[in-house]
Design brief:
The protein is an all-alpha fold. The chain is built from 13 helices and four strands. It has a domain at 60-303. A hairpin with a 2-residue loop joins strand 2 (206-207) and strand 3.
């Protein structure tokens, strides 16, 4: 039966992409931006130390460190919460970014080291005569910034390409990522690799020629870390609300159906895997100058498991949840390691078990249920 030419087709209105943030979300984002860029510097640098409103240097360093962890938790949410791939090896990408920045900071020491040499102290101690090839660009800040992104990206791409093409998934993928980070930790423990062995890198003096231990530099690093965390949050929101993010969630829920629909899940999984690794690498690069040390312990499997715990506690597939989880867990860790250090690991294990059994959607899921109950 033919359609009458007098009856026009009715246009179909396709739904547009949802907004990145709601009005309330943008308001909260602006408040967070003001806290990072204005309130915290004011309380630390302007308010006198005797005032109850003063933000101590210790608090600035602690909050800066936790914000670096929050970036890692956000990266974990993209790969686990939205794609359904549980990685237990993201600590290696965090450490790689940290080591790249640490190499630059070691070169910035110059002749102010214990041995008054152009080489880092550990190389002089091991009787090295020249810098190894992988240190050649470490005196350039621009090259360091590029390598902070490129090194984790290349390692993640090489690992993910073969893993995803082999269709390794589920618990097998988690085990392989844990084995990867353990192997990397053992490699960096060796003195002949040129990464400081067991001690790693420490005793940093300056960055871009500016002393690193001054209050102004400490606050600068704090603000940069906060802006990076907020920037990555907006980027992640844009990513998951776009078509790319919807395909990722479809891969998480029913990968076979995605394949039957004509999409190749490998490309999507590999892309988000590399993006997640780069975010961890940037977090590691911001972490090292604030903490003042980087060693192979950052690659321990336990650290990678902690990243997954932060995401689970806050709530997967929420983006804001993993950030909240990182602050909750690491805030509790900071307090418990002083008040009752022998119970910290028991608390962490109990927290993970409790969240798994009673709060499968994390803290954000609990808040959403309460909000719906009030309505």
């Amino acid at each position: 039966m033919e359609r009458s030419p007098d009856i026009p087709f009715a246009p179909v209105a396709l739904p547009g992409p949802p907004p990145i943030l709601s009005r309330a979300g943008w308001s909260a984002f602006v408040v967070a931006l003001l806290v990072v860029c204005a309130v915290a510097p004011l309380l630390n640098l302007i308010v006198p130390e005797g005032s109850p409103l003063h933000l101590s240097d210790y608090a600035v360093s602690l909050l800066g460190k936790i914000m670096c962890y929050a970036i890692c938790a956000l990266a974990m949410d993209l790969i686990w919460g939205y794609t359904g791939i549980l990685s237990l090896g993201h600590g290696v990408f965090f450490a790689l970014g940290g080591y790249v920045m640490g190499m630059y900071l070691m070169r910035q020491i110059g002749r102010d080291g214990n041995y008054k040499s152009d080489l880092p102290d550990f190389m002089v101690f091991l009787d090295w005569k020249t810098l190894p090839w992988h240190w050649q660009l470490s005196d350039s800040f621009i090259a360091t910034l590029l390598l902070v992104v490129l090194v984790p990206a290349v390692v993640a791409f090489a690992f993910g390409y073969f893993a995803f093409r082999s269709r390794i998934k589920g618990v097998y993928f988690s085990i392989i990522t844990q084995a990867m980070t353990f192997a990397a930790m053992l490699l960096f423990f060796r003195n002949e690799t040129g990464f400081g062995g067991n001690n790693g890198f420490t005793d940093f003096k300056r960055i871009l020629g500016v002393p690193i231990a001054t209050p102004s530099m400490r606050m600068t690093l704090f603000v940069l870390t906060g802006l990076t965390m907020l920037g990555f949050f907006l980027f992640a929101r844009w990513l998951v609300t776009a078509k790319f993010g919807r395909v990722l969630q479809a891969v998480r829920d029913a990968e076979s159906r995605v394949m039957f629909s004509g999409y190749n899940p490998i490309g999507y999984k590999l892309t988000i895997w590399v993006i997640s690794a780069v975010m961890c690498g940037v977090a590691g690069a911001l972490y090292v100058p604030q903490v003042g040390i980087i060693n192979p312990g950052e690659m321990s499997p336990a650290n990678s498991i902690e990243i997954a715990i932060w995401a689970a506690v806050g709530g997967r597939a929420t983006l804001i949840g993993p950030i909240v989880g990182a602050f909750i867990v690491n805030g509790a860790k900071s307090w418990l390691t002083v008040a009752a250090p022998e119970f910290w690991l028991y608390f962490l294990g109990a927290l993970f078990i409790g969240v798994t059994l009673f709060l499968p959607h994390g803290v954000m899921g609990l808040l959403r249920r309460r909000k719906k109950g009030e309505q």
